[in-house]
Specification:
The chain is built from 23 helices and two strands. The chain is mostly helical and 484 residues long. α16 runs parallel beside α17.
Length: 484
């Protein structure tokens, strides 16, 4: 029994999070030096110093102690909130954004890998701040908490709680007996994908800045681009093709890639039922969109590539745009909206509900239909030939209720700001699902700047809920969590 909530180990871990983030805020300094942005350089140094000071204060008031589920939930929830708050400092100090709500929105969108933006003229911003936008997504993609689990031996048994809370999906698969080894392996795979994609984009003709920033936003399924037109700014189909492939890879379960590292064989990938369903949904969505576009415009060389790119971008919750899909036919837009609710595989860097949850939820619903005619029959929910524990089935059902409740409430809260129901509904799901662009006033070539401070804070809360998969953050608002 853990007893009451122990705040000293929570403060200790939050201090580590802020200290690592302070170090991360110094990385764009190299970019500022290279491009001669001396004012922005000083801004990053100041932001890093303040973040480090806050981290040291947390460490000073923190202390040793075991990390139990309550402490783990508090660390993960406050960790992402503090990362967003202190990550907003560079936007304010460089003058890129003057309103605190705007800076918090942009920062939260980065760390939660949402990709929604309030910048009205992206390319007018300094290179250092544009690098920070994409780099913050890269940090948030695999998860800052997973990084600490990999690096900090002092966590002890608490590492398992943090890892389970941080790895997205209905289950957090442990590949090795020691969670630290698992987290470290996942980060090495993440780094490898980053290096490989950067090299390929360089070979496609991008300069190092564009190659790095787009790679950061691809492997994290974040979607921030230093170009106002997103990926559509590049005419090369090779660039689009490379980004497409790595979006699909990033939307897969990293545990499967780790299994390949252990020489499990390529067949182990295709034996995974979730991966097969994930790729099948992508293929069907691509085919439907491509046929819908060809019915309107006729078959063109880019039709299939654009259909595949946008289907993958939305389903993996990356949010890149290879073309402005706002004027697409209604059927194509409807498919994209449906994909916003799907997301990638469990254990991926993508957001939204995840393919595994949809598979479990659908089979659980079909079981209930069968039980109407045979109420005494014992039926187990199975996925990929394996029985799903009943507690997981109940957890998935609860997740669906909370997810759709948050989406509906978010829609109502931002609806008063206008400009319409479609805008409000897609703004809610695109932030809750960490997707990025929506439709109508928040389309792929638009932004969220027109919303007022109140609506932006609501959308920021939805980003946090989505990144924490609803349960962790919602738990903080229950009496049970704080009761001894």
């Amino acid at each position: 029994m853990s007893g009451g909530l122990h705040l000293r180990p929570v403060l200790r871990m939050l201090g580590w999070i802020l200290l690592v983030q302070a170090g991360a805020q110094l990385v764009p300094v190299a970019c500022c030096l290279f491009y001669g942005e001396s004012a922005d350089l000083r801004a990053f140094l100041a932001a890093g110093a303040l973040t480090a000071l806050a981290g040291l204060l947390c460490r000073a008031f923190g202390g040793a102690g075991e990390i139990y589920p309550r402490e783990g939930i508090l660390i993960v929830s406050l960790g992402w909130i503090l990362a967003s708050v202190f990550g907003a400092l560079p936007y304010l100090f460089t003058g890129t954004l003057s309103a605190p709500a705007d800076a918090l929105f942009e920062s939260a969108s980065g760390f939660t890998t949402t990709g929604a933006s309030v910048l009205t003229d992206i390319e007018a911003a300094g290179r250092g701040i544009l690098f920070w936008r994409s780099f913050s997504q890269w940090l948030g993609g695999m998860g800052i908490i997973v990084l600490f689990v990999a690096l900090l031996p002092e966590l002890g048994p608490g590492a398992r709680f943090l890892y389970k809370l941080e790895v997205p999906g209905p289950t957090a698969e442990s590949l090795r007996p020691r969670i630290r080894d698992t987290a470290g392996l996942l980060w090495r795979i993440y780094l490898l994908l980053t290096v490989v994609q950067t090299v390929l984009l360089l070979l496609c003709g991008l300069d190092l800045f564009d190659a790095l920033t787009h790679t950061f936003s691809t492997v994290s399924t974040g979607g921030f681009s230093p170009r106002g037109a997103s990926v559509a700014a590049f005419a090369s189909p090779w660039v689009h093709g490379v980004i497409l492939v790595f979006m699909v890879v990033a939307g897969g379960n990293f545990s499967l890639y780790a299994a390949l590292h252990r020489r499990a064989g390529w067949r182990s990938l295709w034996r995974d039922s979730e991966l097969r369903l994930y790729l099948s949904l992508l293929a069907v969505a691509t085919a439907v969109i491509a046929m819908d576009l060809s019915r309107r415009d006729g078959w063109m060389g880019r039709t299939l590539l654009d259909a595949a790119f946008q289907a993958a971008s939305v389903m993996t919750t990356t949010g890149f745009a290879s073309v402005d899909f706002a004027p697409w036919p209604n059927l194509s837009q409807g498919v994209l909206i449906a994909l916003m609710f799907v997301g990638g595989c469990a254990g991926s860097t993508s957001g939204s509900m995840k393919v595994m949850r949809l598979a479990i939820g659908l089979k659980a619903a079909l079981r209930e239909v069968c039980l109407l005619f045979a109420p005494n029959r014992v039926m187990r929910v199975t996925v990929g030939g394996k029985a799903v524990p009943e507690e997981v089935v109940h957890s998935v059902a609860g997740f669906f209720v909370l997810f759709f409740a948050c989406w509906g409430l978010g829609t109502l809260l931002v609806l008063s700001a206008g400009p319409g129901l479609v805008t409000a509904a897609t703004a809610s799901i695109t932030t809750l699902g960490n997707v990025g662009p929506g439709f109508e006033a928040i389309g792929p070539m638009a932004n969220f700047a027109f919303y007022g401070s109140w609506e932006k804070l609501v959308l920021v809360a939805l980003m946090w809920l989505g990144r924490l998969e609803v349960y962790a953050l919602a738990a903080l608002f229950t009496g049970t969590f704080w009761r001894r």
